Amino acid sequence: MDNLNLDLAIRHNRTARATLTLSHNGVPLANQDMRIEQKKHKFLFGSTWGESTIAMANGDLSGKAQEQAELRNEHYLQLFNLATMPFYWGRFEPVRGMPQTQRILNAARWYQDHGCRVKGHPLCWHTLTANWLLEMSSREILEAQVGRINREVSDFTGVIDTWDVVNEAVIMPIFDKYDNGITRLCKEMGRIHLIRTMFETARAANPGITLLLNDFDVSPAYDILIEGCLEAGIQIDVIGIQTHMHQGYWGVEKTRRVLERFERFHLPIHFTETNIISGELMPLEIVDLNDYQVTEWPSTPAGEERQAREVILHFKTLLAHPAVEAISWWDFVDNGWLHAPAGLLREDCSPKPAYDALLKLVKGEWWLPQTKMTTDENGRLSFTGFMGTYELSIGNQKIPFSLDQKGEVALHLNL
Amino acid sequence: MDNLNLDLAIRHNRTARATLTLSHNGVPLANQDMRIEQKKHKFLFGSTWGESTIAMANGDLSGKAQEQAELRNEHYLQLFNLATMPFYWGRFEPVRGMPQTQRILNAARWYQDHGCRVKGHPLCWHTLTANWLLEMSSREILEAQVGRINREVSDFTGVIDTWDVVNEAVIMPIFDKYDNGITRLCKEMGRIHLIRTMFETARAANPGITLLLNDFDVSPAYDILIEGCLEAGIQIDVIGIQTHMHQGYWGVEKTRRVLERFERFHLPIHFTETNIISGELMPLEIVDLNDYQVTEWPSTPAGEERQAREVILHFKTLLAHPAVEAISWWDFVDNGWLHAPAGLLREDCSPKPAYDALLKLVKGEWWLPQTKMTTDENGRLSFTGFMGTYELSIGNQKIPFSLDQKGEVALHLNL
Known about the structure:
- Chain A is an alpha/beta fold.
- The first copy, chain A, is 36% helix and 25% strand.
- The first copy, chain A, contains twelve helices and 16 strands.
- In chain A, α2 (51-57) packs across α5, α6 (138-155) crosses α7 and α7 crosses α8.
- Chain A is globular, with a radius of gyration of 23 Å.
């Protein structure tokens, strides 16, 4: 699929052809001038928390550090409407009974107050889980895990209503790098029974919630796991797919093959952890990315140009597919996970070409800036816009509306 | 696990310590001489049909061909108590409505009459399926597939009561070598829904049946598929695992890792399609074994010695694990599938060292030949034997009995 066809598919799948009929006390507002402006995308463009933002939201920063955090946030809010918050059990509750709830809640609220939907990641994962589980029996681990989900989901209700519930279940029971409580639990319960327990616990704590299963495995194993869960009656709301492309961009064909594998479930798909790096690629012989240990991994000018091209192609490929509803970038700023040049910003928070190019799409080509329009003699006007929320202004009066569906949409606004 | 430990585990898992108490009209038969002889193994040692045996059972052979078939069968029945019969749809029913039922039934009965349990392979598989499905809608393919299972299972009841129901479901919907009706059907139904339909159809046609899911994929994908089926309430009686080791013997460690992956379901495991070849190994870069096209693939003396060592180690590894209940060799004679030197017999039906070594175990080390024993003053005697059926003879009187469970077994025989 070439660029032109991608753009056509994006137009087809992401835009509404809106016809607004304006009236005042039942009388059409004929030949009325106004301004219409997009306020937000329906599509979720997101990234990760940022340790500096958590510190800032908790009043821990000052001086240069505060300035850097503000710079990051400025770039963040220009581009994104989604933020992933960290709930790695071992870090969230390093000492049993002393969770970092307030600290993460402050940061999550900051993102929410600044127009972002907030997602929690993850509620159940074998990596970075609490070490103190190792002293427990399987039954006690299960009780602690269920209690933990119940606590977090309840404590964050209204701020975080979207969760990566179980992370990397495909390898969870066979993970053998080190002993941990969750692998033990999954080995004993089986993947599907574990997933059912965690999903049902989360939903019971907050029935209006959106729950993801998330994995980096895009082989038939994950496909079959999802099928098994659905056949067993487990309500998965969204399929989460990780794409840490430290070893090279997948390309359009592989991305489309993966989409074909998962579209058959007729569930929304979120690309939850996306990276294309702007430095030297990680060697292909590395199987577990965590095994690649370097202290420095620079971003290069040539790498940044390549990254920009690939990022645009990847975002376009995903937006061209109707099942995809979110793309989250993993590590907005360089020198995060693995010290990789994986950010859209450099370590000094200056935007890379990929950031600029993406912004040109998200807030340019795919965006309706404030635009003057006039109704016809019947009080009608038409325009095409990307799905999302909009604001119509006549003088000082502002009327919010939203375009939630693609294709022809007729709206009646009574002023 | 070394050889000694394997032998100990085999003794532990496969033998019974039997105490027989003999009486006549309620009176213990004290100090009575008798002979005890093993007649059959409970463990299933098997192989495939043999085109020559099908031809022979249908009276098609004469002269040298008949002699060769008889030679094969003689070696077969010395070693095996299980036979797999072919039900590849495209060959079994090349013209719709004209199945080869009688021909296969004659051969299956021949094996049954000669003491073998008979298994049908497979009822639903995308490879070698009927070409005439391609002209049908998915609904018609499903009707034909269900009708086919119902027909075969019914027609063979009492002769074949064990079936590989669905073969290679992991790749079934993504198989892309050529278009075929079953891949289309699986893509539409999903793997688990298809498996459910085929298993339920087979069981409805013959409720007392033993049904296998069979796959060459031993990755987490198959493990997860089985879990998904079981969580969905599908009754799988036996897990079938293929091991076509044309690219080299797995070794004990890999075999044990695979067993660990599948033992958690607490279901019997059959190694349904086992090959270790006695010639040059197939290059590792071949992914689908069917892609390796050679016209000649000789068995070599060095290869035959290696094969013998590996066959013995493989059989011992499997018998040492309590979940394994059957091992079927694939192609008893060389120059079958892929022209490979995969047989235990050479093309002229002469036994290779692997055959001789295996026979020494199955009918030697693991076997109780006719043995003279004497009861004590209470009419009791004890012996240790591999699980299976036995015959006790006193004079001309013959009493059959069986050892069905490992460990201590007490039997009372009233003569």
